[in-house]
Amino acid sequence: xxxxxxxxxxxxxxKNGKTTAGRTRWRCTSxxxxxTQRIDNAxxxxxxxxxxxxxxxxxxxxxxxxxxxxxxxxxxxxxWPMPPKVERPRRVVYVDGIHxxxxxxxxxxxxxxxxxxxxxxxxxxxxxxxxxxxRIAAPEVVVSDGGDGFAKALRKTWPKTRHQRCVFxxxxxxxxxxxTRPRTxxxxxxxxxxxxxxxxxxxxxADGWVQALLAWSDRWAGFLAExxxxxxxxxxxxxxxxxxxxxSLVRLVNAGTLFTxxxxxxxxxxxxPSTNNRIEGGVNxxxxxxxxxxxxxxxxxxxxxxxxxxxxxxxDPLPAAEILRVMPTDRSIAAIYERLDERQKLExxxxxxxxxxxWSELHxxxxxxxxxx
Length: 373
Description:
By secondary structure, this protein is an alpha+beta fold. The chain has helices spanning 42-53, 67-73, 126-133, 150-157, 167-178, 185-196, 203-219, 221-224, 240-255, 264-267, 277-293, 299-312, 320-326, 330-339, 342-347, 356-362; strands at residues 13-18, 24-28, 34-36, 92-99, 105-110, 115-121, 141-144, 162-165, 227-229, 235-237, 349-350, 354-355. 43% of the residues lie in helices and 14% in strands. The longest helix has 17 residues, at 203-219.
């Protein structure tokens, strides 16, 4: 390492003994100023921290059981890696939410290779989805599992983007109502129709499936309309679960989101996906595996771990030194939160971070945590 330059005149300095702490003292041969040189290894430590977090490495296998690692790298848990602004439109974007329990959800958007955006919220709703989507250029097609509020956010934020409802999730929703072994003939037939969704590859097959669903509804209309009176006099549908299963499919057919992947105008260049498997297996499964490998993290650290994974798998993550310089920390976000008025604290979002109400609950100063039930 070369000699440092004088902070006063800019000339090169020469060694001039050591301090009582054993560090090298440098003295300017021009103006006589004396100083010591501190080596900033924060970027190197951050790389080590991420190397542990994003792999299956264990602190127990580190020297000293990881005590030195925790002391040196604990400060990096204060950083919130923010999503980039994606200005290049993708053909297909996948969106989904990973639930961490205790009313915390991280909404994530990705393409076939990279994580494009993430947003922390208390529950899936149109405002949270819109906040996630607003920083990403509108794609041709977006694939989702039908989360609450997504359709409303899509109409507002990406009005020209076509929506493909994951057909596997559509099948799974019917399966929850009918089970895999329905007890009635109507249930057996509806379950079979739902399974057939997974094998449709042409417009002709899709039209035939819709006609089969309508025929099933007509054939079992009287059966589905049967009611039962309970002991307290209330009247309810006898086969309510089947009615709900049918309604879930009819709603998707009417919305026109079930067979978007077969639209000739969209699929002429290359096939479009019919499921959300890319984000389920390529992102959510990896995140859950990371959280299992580092089990025991607090809610806040699990959220930050997801943020770190998404950022390091985003299109162009910054080097460690730049991350330390530009990314917000707990302290800087707290300053933003304090500047919000009471209405914004309850209803608004902290820019690029997440729901303000989640921030207030994660950083509650009360001695007993009652907010995460």
